[in-house]
Every structure is written in C-alpha cells, then in structure tokens.
Amino acid sequence: MISTATDDGTVLLNERTGRYWQLNKTGTRVLQGLLDGQEAAGIAAELADRYGIGRRQAERDVAAVIERLSGAKLVIS
Question: Which DSSP string do the residues of 7-76 spell out, in sequence order?
C-alpha cells in the first residue's frame, strides 16, 4: 500500500490491485490509529470526544471504516 496525505485526508493505492482509495480526515485518523496499534474502541472514544458524537455511533463508524479497509485488503482486522 502506498499512501499520500492530502488537504482532505489520505489517498491510498493498493499496489496489488491498482485500485485507489480516498479517506477523509476521520478515515485517515482511523487508519493511523490502526497503524499505531490502537484498538478500535480507543479510536472511537477519541473521535467521539473530538467531534461531540455518541460513543456507540463512533464505534459503528470506526467499524465501518475498518470493514471497508479490510475488505479491500488494505488492513488486516
């Protein structure tokens, strides 16, 4: 995977498939958290606090990002 930071988040290239993915700033934070070894619950807690959303909603959102990244084989969950 090759990644490039943008003003709006991150663009990823899956080198095996040639497919590009674009993450917004929140998706980028989820990916960075995973790469730093954080658990999904910790990432969700941080996002809930930062954006003033409910913890359960943040957990669902983080899980959705992880599921899409995992489905694209960009991360292993």
Answer: TTEEEEEETTTTEEEEEEHHHHHHHHHHHTT--HHHHHHHHHHHHT--HHHHHHHHHHHHHHHHHTTSS-
The model's pLDDT over 19-51, given as tens digits with 9 standing for 90+, comes to 999 999 999 999 999 999 999 999 999 999 999
Distance CA 51, CA 38 (A): 19
CA distance 7 to 56: 28
Tell me the sheet residues that pair with 9. Answer: 6, 24
What is the rounded distance in angstroms from the CA atom of residue 23 to the CA atom of residue 14? 13
Q: What is the pTM of this model?
A: 0.89
- Whats the size of the chain, residue-wise? 77
